[in-house]
Amino acid sequence: MKAAVYTRYGSPEVLRIKQVTKPVPKDNEILLRIKASAVNSGDVRLRKADPFAVRFIFGLLKPKVNILGSVFSGEVESAGKGVRQFKAGDSVFGHTDMRFGAYAEYICLPEDGSVTFKPANISHNEAAAIPFGGVTALHFIKKAMITPNQKVLIVGASGAVGSAAVQLAKSYGAIVTAVCSTSNIDLVKSIGADKVIDYTKEYFNETGEKYDVIFDTVNTISVSRSLKSLAKNGKMILSAAGMLEMMQGLWISITGRWKVITGVISHAAADIVFLKNLIEAGKFKAVIDRTYPVEQIAEAHGYAEKGHKKGNIVITM
Ligand SMILES: NC(=O)c1ccc[n+]([C@@H]2O[C@H](COP(=O)([O-])OP(=O)(O)OC[C@H]3O[C@@H](n4cnc5c(N)ncnc54)[C@H](OP(=O)(O)O)[C@@H]3O)[C@@H](O)[C@H]2O)c1
Question: Considering only CA atoms, which residue is closest to atom 24 of ligand 1?
Answer without folding.
Answer: 156
